Amino acid sequence: MLHSPLTTHHSQLTTYAIIVAGGSGTRMQSAVPKQFLLVNELPVLMHTLQAFSRSQYAPKLIVVLPDSHHVYWAQLCIQHHFTLPHDLVSGGPTRFHSVKNGLKLVPDDTLVAVHDAVRPLINPAIIDAAYKQANVQGAVVVAVKSRDSVRQVKGPFTQSLLRDEIYLVQTPQTFKTALLKGAYEYAYQESFTDDASVAEHAGHAIHIVEGSYQNLKITFPEDIVIAELLLK
Q: What is the pLDDT of residues 82-116, one digit of tens each?
């Protein structure tokens, strides 16, 4: 098989992907955590891992799961003949602590993407763009422009915000690993809602890679139906 110069360049750069799967399934009204729910007869988390395996950068995969889900995940892998290589890491009390645990397996001189397990529709081309831009700029998030008008509430008043300046942040969020590890040395704060907020707190500028409106986060029962249609 012939490799383009672009592909050869990708293979020289070591990349990792931390797939964070800490969901409990509460909002899904489901006993099964949402990362394990079936979409077109395959658990959501498996679709997500497959998307990353199709990236031209071929990242090494790390799955972060609560300890209580490790055995169940192993059973699912056997049941679905899922053999994609990945490392399994224990989750922490918050997303922050889960990502920090995953970072322990990632060498400093690499690029690392952090992605929600319940975003199975991520396009590999967007993953590639995020790695490419992170290699240049250090810290990037995948995001889409708001399609709706946005209002901010301040006390009893509201004010309109410029829609063109509002982006809705998705994952993956991709970084030079040494940058992200340094940011994660700070003590946990409740304002750390994602990896970008941790990196920003450490003084790093966050850049945007254009995402896709199809990169939905499976949160409610109707999201499963939409994901099945989009995957078909």
A: 999 999 999 999 999 999 999 999 999 999 999 99
First to last CA, the chain: 28
3-state secondary structure of 34: helix
Please give the Cα distance from 39 to 13 (Å, whole number): 32
For residues 85 and 119, give the distance between their C-alpha atoms in angstroms, rounded to a whole number: 19
Helices (H), the chain: 5-12, 44-53, 70-79, 95-103, 124-137, 177-183, 195-201, 221-231
**What are the residues facing 111 on neighbouring strands?**
15, 176
DSSP state of 100: H
Distance of CA 25 to the CA centre of its chain: 18
CA–CA gap between residue 141 and residue 211 (Å, rounded):
9
Note the pLDDT tens digit of each residue in 197-221. Answer: 999 999 999 999 999 999 999 988 8
Each residue's pLDDT tens digit, 142-193: 999 999 999 999 999 999 999 899 999 999 999 999 999 999 999 999 999 9
Q: Report the C-alpha gap between 124 and 114 in whole angstroms.
A: 14
- What separation in angstroms does the CA of 146 have from each of 20, 126, 158, 163, 198? 25, 18, 18, 6, 23
* Cα three-residue angle 6-142-126, rounded to 5 degrees: 35
Rounded to whole angstroms, the Cα distance separating 158 from 165 reads 17
What is the spatial distance between Cα 195 and Cα 210, in angstroms, rounded to a whole number? 17
